[in-house]
């Protein structure tokens, strides 16, 4: 599939030395499992939420999602925070059982390591979920920094999680490349003034909102040293 690149030939070339990864849907094939876990936990707790309403909370952190449920679909029993923790327990277990590392991830991480890039993970998922899954799937040691939106005030599409991760790595925004599968993630990366490559799933690949990315790929398998240098 053809790459989509921003028209930025009039800008000076900046050297990319840091690569920041999203997790769900980009590193790990866990994005579809969130819906399963949320529906399962909602049913156990008598929360009258349906899958078609999940779009109302797209991009929110799970604690914010459950607070939204409590406001619009009130239930008796557990607090919103307790329900969020239950969803996290469920999604972690389900991801370990059914998730997988996305195509091209191992090869790309090995390439970045060999070439001396700083490698970060910046995700809206809670820290305990990120740590549990990157350890389970054997990729934890290849990241120099892991930043969850837990540690910043606002999640994506706000750029805070990317800026925090970059600062932790000693990298300036113009030295960073963000790899993202979601529109909110791409917006966050661009708002952070970083280069962004979008890697959407097949169902959302033609979403015109991805046009703000510097490049669009159908898989991380396509990202090689030549493309990295072209940024």
Give an account of the 3D structure.
With 231 residues, the protein is of the alpha/beta class. Helix content is 38%, strand content 11%. It has 8 helices and 6 strands. The protein has a 6-stranded parallel β-sheet, with helices on both faces. The longest helix has 19 residues. It is globular. The N terminus is likely disordered.
Quick take:
This protein has 231 residues and is α/β, with parallel strands linked by helices. The chain has eight helices and six strands.
Helix and strand topology:
Blueprint: E1 18-21, H1 31-44, H2 62-72, H3 80-98, H4 105-114, E2 118-123, H5 127-136, E3 145-148, H6 160-168, E4 176-180, H7 183-191, E5 195-198, E6 215-216, H8 225-230
Parallel strand pairs: 1-2, 1-4, 2-3, 4-5, 5-6
Helix pairs in contact: 1-3, 2-3, 3-5
Strand order of the largest sheet: 3-2-1-4-5-6
Count of the separate structural domains? 2
- C-alpha geometry: globular
Straight-line N-to-C gap: 18 Å
Which architecture of the largest domain per CATH? 3-Layer(aba) Sandwich
Tell me the CATH superfamily of the largest domain.
HAD superfamily/HAD-like
Helix content: 25-40%
What's the pLDDT, averaged over the residues?
A: 92
The number of distinct β-strands equals: 6
Radius of gyration: 18 Å
Unreliable segments (pLDDT under 50, ≥5 consecutive)?
A: 1-12
Topology-level CATH name of the largest domain = Rossmann fold
Helix count from the secondary structure assignment:
8
Which class best fits the helix and strand makeup? alpha/beta
Could you name the CATH class of the largest domain? Alpha Beta
């Amino acid at each position: 599939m053809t790459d989509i690149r921003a028209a930025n030939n009039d800008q000076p070339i900046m050297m990319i030395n840091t690569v920041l990864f999203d997790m769900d849907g980009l590193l790990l094939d866990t994005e579809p499992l969130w819906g399963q876990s949320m529906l399962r936990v909602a049913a156990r707790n008598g929360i009258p939420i349906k899958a078609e309403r999940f779009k109302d909370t797209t991009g929110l952190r799970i604690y914010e999602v459950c607070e939204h449920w409590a406001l619009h679909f009130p239930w008796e029993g557990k607090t919103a925070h307790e329900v969020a923790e239950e969803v996290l327990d469920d999604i972690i277990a389900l991801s370990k059982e059914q998730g997988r590392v996305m195509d091209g991830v191992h090869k790309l991480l090995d390439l970045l390591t060999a070439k001396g890039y700083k490698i970060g993970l910046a995700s809206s998922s809670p820290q305990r979920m990120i740590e549990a899954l990157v350890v389970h799937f054997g990729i934890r040691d290849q990241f120099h920094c892991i930043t969850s939106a837990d540690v910043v005030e606002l999640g994506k599409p706000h750029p805070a999680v990317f800026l925090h991760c970059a600062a932790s790595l000693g990298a300036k925004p113009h030295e960073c490349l963000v790899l993202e599968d979601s529109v909110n993630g791409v917006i966050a990366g661009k708002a952070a003034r970083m280069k962004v490559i979008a890697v959407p799933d097949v169902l959302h690949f033609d979403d015109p909102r991805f046009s703000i990315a510097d490049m669009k790929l159908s898989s991380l398998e396509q990202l090689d040293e030549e493309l990295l240098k072209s940024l």
